[in-house]
Amino acid sequence: MRRTLLSCLAVSLVSLFAGWYPEYTKRTRAEAESSAASLKLREAGQSLGLSQLKNRAGMLWDQVERNDYGATGEMASRLFTDLRAFTNELPPGDLRQRLERSLGSRDAIIASIAKADPSAKGLIRDLFTTFPEH
Predict the structure, then answer these.
(1) At what angle do helices 72-89 and 2-65 cross, to 10 degrees?
(2) Helices (runs of H) and strands (runs of E) counted in the chain
(3) Contact (CB, 8 A) for 130 and 99
(4) pLDDT, tens digit, for every residue of 21-39?
(5) Which residues contact 58 (CB under 8 A, 6 or more apart)?
(6) What does the pLDDT look like over 69-123, one tens digit per residue?
(7) Which residues lie below 8 Å from residue 64, measured CB to CB, with a gap of 6+?
């Protein structure tokens, strides 16, 4: 009787392990794939956001090159507000430092646009070139 009980217990444990282990490995693999996909999605979102900001800086530069200072003040203000929000979400690193330095030109750019100062062209060009190529 005791031998039968031990045999049943051993078979039960082997069956339990045989059913648990494949599910465990599937779950572990799925978690790793999900983590990798989340990272790629985050990187793609970051790249898209950076490209959109660069495009807006290019549009701002274009407007100033045309000496159209009318709407550029509001455009510049929104660009810097969104650039600040984007930069705050970045992890510490070279890109974040680079964009934080470009935020330092905010007041000079907005003031030169408000005065319709031709120096705004160079300041905005410098801002545009701080964005990395993708």
Answers:
(1) 160
(2) 5, 0
(3) yes
(4) 788 888 888 888 888 888 8
(5) 128
(6) 888 989 999 999 999 999 999 989 888 999 999 999 999 999 999 999 999 999 9
(7) 72, 113, 120, 121, 124
